[in-house]
Amino acid sequence: MHPVLFEIGSFPLGTYGLLLAIAFFAGAALAKRQAKLDGLAPAAITDLAIAMLISGIVGSKLLMIVVDLIGGAPFREVFSLGTLRAGGAIHGGVIAAAAVFFWKLRKGQGLPLRITGDALVPGVALGQAIGRLGCFSAGCCYGTETHLPWAATFTDPIAHAFSGTPLDIPLHPVQLYNTLANLTVMAVLLLARPKRTFQGQIFALYFLVEGLGRVITETWRGDVDRGTGWLGWTWLSTGRVTGLAFMLLGLGLWLFWSRRQATRAGSPA
Question: Residues near 152 by Cβ (< 8 Å), separated by ≥ 6?
Fold first, then answer.
């Protein structure tokens, strides 16, 4: 609703950027709190979170560019200043951050992979929830037209210039749907943690429920130019492709790690 919060001289303070910063600090604080429960070093978690943040920003931009190019958008338009200032594709950020997570822990950061993943993902979900408020403020990732009582109508020309947001048309506030979905994911992870039966279970569960949430909320996405119709199926948008991939990854990690735990428990002392 307010892409630019205020201006200091000729410098505009973007609402999306501010909320992204808040999302990072809130997510990192929750991750450190979860890490302490498993005896992990908070400083190491902070260093890892910063690396994941940087890679997440780059990954979200790259996936947005790739999808736009595949969708046939003109090269000049894809790399225009307005497009590059848009938030990007969130699952590209999650994929890149996950890749950096596995890479850094494989290099040896003094952090066990599965327990560290369990500690991080509730904070990731919280950060996503806050970040989606930034999307709503900027007008990007907008929804389809609706006349429901809670419809959102964007009027700021900046939103249209940066993200192609339809103006003066009531739309599903799908960004807020995603915020609620991500808060639900966070709550599920936090509630499941005390009942964890194997290390890495919360990490795997994140990909399962995050992917499911994205598959569902794609129903109301209106920015169809970002990629639809994969494999010839009109319903299979980029968001659903990545959402289904997340669910498969989560299921695979769950089965692999749970079976490893069962094998170890059944082995003779």
Answer: 1, 136, 143, 170, 171, 172, 173, 176
